[in-house]
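Board notes (copied after class):
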Amino acid sequence: MRRSSWIAQHPAPVDRRIALALHAAQGTAISVPGLASIHDEPPAQPRTVAEIVEMAERRGWSQVFKALKSNGLLVEQTLGHVVARWRESAGRAAFLP
């Protein structure tokens, strides 16, 4: 098994939380009808948690955030906002440091 595959399947707790937060935030992006046709590009497909972790291994979390945001998958202004919103949803703030 490749090292990156193992890391994607067994990320550290902090990395797992960030990956889950980014994955969940992809569903909050606002869809604008006709926007894709303006740029002649199909809408970006949301990334899986494993893909997000593998991207972070290569490029770091801030670059993953920027890539997802530039693809129109995120609306939050910062990675901190993504994680904070994820922690607040469904009472996660009570369970995570």
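Comment from the instructor: The two ends are 32 Å apart (CA to CA). The helical segments are 3-9, 13-25, 35-39, 49-59, 61-70, 79-88.
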